[in-house]
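This section describes the prediction task in plain terms. A model, or a person checking by hand, is given the sequence of a single protein chain and must write out its three-dimensional structure as a string of tokens. No templates, partner chains or ligands are provided. The sample shown here is typical of the held-out split.
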Amino acid sequence: MTPPTRDELEARLHYPLGDQLPGPGCAIDVAPGIRWLRMGLPFELNHINLWLVRDEVEGRQGWTIVDCGISNDDTRERWKNVFASALDGLPVLRVLVTHMHPDHIGLCQWLCDHWSAPLYISATDYNLARINSQSTLGFGGEPAARFFATHGLTDDQAQAQVRNRKSYYPAMVPSVPDTYVRLLDGMTLQLGQNEWTCIAGYGHAPEHMALYCPATGVLISGDMVLPRISTNVSVFHMEPLSDPLSLFLSSLKRYEALPEDTLVLPSHGKPFKGLHERLQQLNDHHQERLDELTEACRHSPHHAADALDILFKRDLDLHQTTFAMGESLAHLHRLWYSGLVDRVQGEDGVYRFSAVA
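The expected answer:
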């Protein structure tokens, strides 16, 4: 049977706002007390959704910002437009970041300073953001190049590009505040009149925090549940023996208890309903990729670069290749830790995976 296309899968979801999108520096009301913003990104994934949640702190009326965009002039200018047009004359009281990836945390220092507002984030992501913002390597440089070489990315041009990809993270996240408020799994956060529950997720980021409000049936899902694309789940050189796909799939189970008619506010794509359907789609997607990899490894040993053509049916640029290599490894490691494949390092220093007989 031919698997459904991405368009066919997406048609099973419901988009309450249709094709409506917020314009630059503008906001759209998506639920009582919640507004949707959209900022640009310099990647193929060219946008991030950000959220304003009506709040009250110690009698002061205002807003909590959820996620920030990257640190650049364009994002700052769009935020200034938001300040002038979308806050109803009220201040920002808190800045909450779902996780430490640049498009989510990049501009948090500027926003926190501008409003004298505290940062809320998990401890794991806060500390890794601080480390990476002060590093000249981040997700590139010599360590990343050596790591990818041991997994088959040995092409001279690709190696040179990865090696020269320095300051990737600090370019978009130049700094983070010196202090923060720690978010914990299961923690209840009072935002205005409503209580929100923190739901930790693993595999995509070190300790991602989604937010669910039972009173309104709204889930701010961050990058954990996206409506059209699958969340990137990668092995990186900083944690070379990790099993992030197992962590990610286990994390998805945490959302199964939420109502099917939950309004999901994702970081990429449009607000949607059909949470349970989408969770099943994501599980099916990864199982299909795992089955394809197992079959390929049954015929011949594969390294992560070999697996790119199996997992990705399109040309990839450097930015995409870096994350695709990480995702390829995540799938191979899931099979390896499940005992379905063996891993052997050859005389050339490259790790290859073969199906267990």
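For orientation: The mean pLDDT is 94.
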